[in-house]
Model the fold of this input.
Amino acid sequence: MRLKDLEARMREREWFHSLTLPPGAWAVIRVDGRGFSAYTESRFGKPFDPRFSALMTGAAQALLTEFPGRYAYTESDEISLVLPPSFDLFGREVEKLVSLSAATASAAFTHAAGEPVTFDGRIWIGTGEQDVVDYLSWRQADAARCSLNGWCYWTLREEGLTARQATRRLERATVPEKNELLYARGVNYNELPLWQRRGIGLWWETYDKTGHDPVRGTDVTATRRRVHVERELPMKDAYRSLVGDLITRTG
Done:
């Protein structure tokens, strides 16, 4: 068998290599930490640890920079990165986007943490801007739900309940009941840091940088871009308005 024929046969079995994002579609890459429940339990404070948040934010910034995206959002051990219809890196190949996004997050987190971790990736597809806004609203709602549950769960664990006991205690509890559980123990959930309750957003912003031109002997101003990290996101309609504006910016 000729090498050329063998290569053709083998290439035919790369079933998903030709799969690309649909033309004109919005996309969101979401990466999640693999095995992070066990990884974080013995290394970070519960239910939230600023050090872990900083590591996740750094990984999100790496994704926003490397691909690049319009907006990144991180909560818990996940990151969502919004890609506009005009995005054409890697020919919009799904395999590359999924594998390289997971690799980028893993490398950034590992480098900053000093020990290896891994992320997995997936892609969500939207047909319009409102689909993306709906997606981001969904992830923020998930952040709020997980935040309240996490505070209740770890508060009960600190009182001596086992993992099973704490989980069963919260199974049928309503949101007001969970808030009351915390309040009775000196925790006002509504006064906790916003990043714990609503997640963290990252986006590109422009700023003016002043420098000195030694040839002309004058000060000059140049426009630069940098990543803005927002730890005090609004919620509900205000959040939808914010992200709607951010994802449609072209500058």
